[in-house]
């Protein structure tokens, strides 16, 4: 399903509704690339009548717009849930498996439970539910875009909170991504418990410091 120039649509949800599915959940994750912090996923079931305008791929929205939309989505959704996988678990099972696990956890937390899943990306989830993988789903499916917004807002809020504990890495600004400033802080201070030891820059630093 390709993205529309006008943004995500509910076309696939409407098709599924005509096939008898009434609780279609969009599922997405955020935080695969950062050197620090969890990977966070969200799952959202939208009502048939949907009045929130401007829902789009979270990467295309500024912070204030995402925050406003996240509040509206939570108010109007039939159900929504967020879940995460911690850095230590990412290191243990790898980021791909951690991303799928975070999405499964988010789906499991939905009440009512969905009867169909639209999963952003190329992989479906190991769950006993009808589902499909939608490449670029956050840019083409409204429910998936809504999930991307909730996941992004949840993770950003967590990283701002973690900044209060480890201000030297400036997580409030970089959200754990490997900016030049973040990498300099890593070199000067070493990794903190929020860093992903399996990621190459952190792993190499541990070797250089004799911590590996």
Major sheet description: 5 strands, mixed
Helix content: 40-55%
Summed over residues and divided by their number, the pLDDT gives a mean of: 94
Order of helices and strands: HEEHEHHEEHHHHH
Number of helices: 9
Number of domains: 2
In terms of DSSP E residues, the strand content is 5-15%
Structure at a glance:
Residues 22-211 form the RNase H type-2 domain. The radius of gyration is 18 Å and the shape is elongated. The model has no long low-confidence stretch (mean pLDDT 94).
Secondary structure layout plus pairing:
Blueprint: H1 11-18, E1 24-30, E2 39-45, H2 63-76, E3 79-85, H3 87-93, H4 95-108, E4 116-120, E5 131-134, H5 137-140, H6 142-165, H7 171-174, H8 180-189, H9 200-208
Parallel strand pairs: 1-4, 4-5
Antiparallel strand pairs: 1-2, 2-3
Helix pairs in contact: 2-6, 3-4
Describe what you observe in this structure.
With 212 residues, the protein is of the alpha/beta class. It contains nine helices and five strands. It has two domains: 11-154, Nucleotidyltransferase, domain 5 (2-Layer Sandwich); 164-208. Helices cover 44% and strands 14% of the residues. A hairpin with an 8-residue loop joins strand 1 (24-30) and strand 2. The longest helix is centred in the C-terminal third of the chain and has 24 residues, at 142-165. The protein starts with 10 loop residues before the first helix and ends with a helix. It comes from Desulfoferula mesophila. It catalyses: Endonucleolytic cleavage to 5'-phosphomonoester. InterPro entries: RNase_HII, RNase_HII/HIII, RNase_HII/HIII_dom, RNaseH-like_sf, RNaseH_sf. Its EC number is 3.1.26.4.
